[in-house]
Specification:
It is built from 8 helices and 10 strands. It has helices at 8-25, 40-53, 79-91, 108-121, 158-164, 184-188, 203-211, 244-253; strands at residues 2-5, 30-33, 61-64, 66-68, 98-99, 127-130, 152-155, 178-181, 192-197, 229-233. The strands form 2 sheets. The chain has a 7-stranded parallel β-sheet with strand order 1-10-9-6-2-3-5. Strands 4-8-7 form a 3-stranded antiparallel β-sheet. Helix 1 (8-25) packs across helix 2 (40-53). Residues 34-38, 65-66, 131-133, 139-140, 160, 164 line the site of 2-amino-2-deoxy-6-O-phosphono-alpha-D-glucopyranose.
């Protein structure tokens, strides 16, 4: 696991640079996209690269991590709409190239299985962008999630519903109780995982992710078992790391051409 501690704009630049490198060498790459506020600076940087440096997403495809159950198709907080608005419409993905689990499916288990099949049929995710919840969830894999889980329905914790109420005009009652999420094993199948976390509220989760024991109580800790994970954190999110100085020195010593 590589941890990079830097200013938020540098983190966004690094993550977008990794996506750029991937797409320049393989224009039909498969991206894993995450919602939440943490990845937004990465998406803004990708838009800049698309507009100013001709980075093309026309042959790429993308899979989102998760979706609320029951939000109407046009609801602005439906995650497929959020991803469309924040990134995929802005960089010109081809119609039909962006996929998300169907939170309105009549047969939820069948929809989850179909999502797993679609990721497999696309050849798997080349690069997965991830955020992390304050309780250590990734996607919507809440504490207690099976470390071997696949796409399925989950019940959101009160903590997550409270955290996410800000996207629903501060009204926790408007936040759905259920979601569909890629499982931890689904996420672990991505070839490169880039997790971004900024701000003091993430410091405990980041500490557990990087330095804690692997445990379903902090689902993100499963990433310690992945061969290619990059954790991008600012000073506030790194404030509880025992290895903070080590990570700072390794990044300072790293040749700039190396990328992530
Ligand atoms: C939601 C999403 C996660 C995201 C998390 C953190 O719960 N399902 O994928 O990582 O929020 O969001 P933020 O980056 O806004 O703190």
């Amino acid at each position: 696991m590589e941890a990079v501690i830097a200013a938020p704009d540098e983190l966004a630049w690094l993550a977008a640079g990794a996506i750029e490198k991937l797409l320049r060498s393989r224009p039909d790459a498969v991206l894993g996209l995450a919602t939440g506020s943490s990845p937004l600076p990465i998406y803004d940087e990708l838009v800049r690269l698309h507009v100013e440096a001709g980075l093309s997403f026309a042959r790429a495809s993308a899979f989102t991590l998760d979706e609320y159950v029951g939000l109407p198709r046009k609801h602005p907080q439906r995650y497929l709409n959020v991803i469309t608005h924040e990134i995929t419409d802005r960089v010109g993905f081809a119609p039909g190239a962006v996929h998300g689990p169907d939170g309105l499916a009549a047969d939820i288990p069948a929809a989850c299985a179909a999502y797993e099949d679609a990721i497999m049929a696309a050849g798997g995710v080349d690069l997965q962008i991830l955020g992390i919840g304050t309780d250590g969830h990734v996607g919507f894999n809440e504490p207690g999630s099976s470390l071997a889980s696949r796409t399925r329905i989950k019940t959101l914790t009160e903590q997550t519903r409270t955290d996410n109420a800000r996207f629903f005009a501060g009204d926790i009652n408007a936040v759905p109780h259920h979601c569909l999420t890629q499982g931890l094993a689904t996420i672990m199948a991505a070839r490169h995982i880039v997790l971004i976390a900024t701000g003091r509220a993430k410091a405990d989760a980041v500490h557990q992710l990087v330095e804690g024991p692997v445990s379903a109580m902090w689902p993100a800790t499963i990433l310690q078992l992945h061969p290619h994970v990059t954790v991008l954190i600012d000073n506030a999110a790194a404030s509880r790391l025992q290895l903070g100085d080590y990570f700072r020195s390794t990044y300072t010593a790293k040749p700039t051409w190396q990328g992530l």
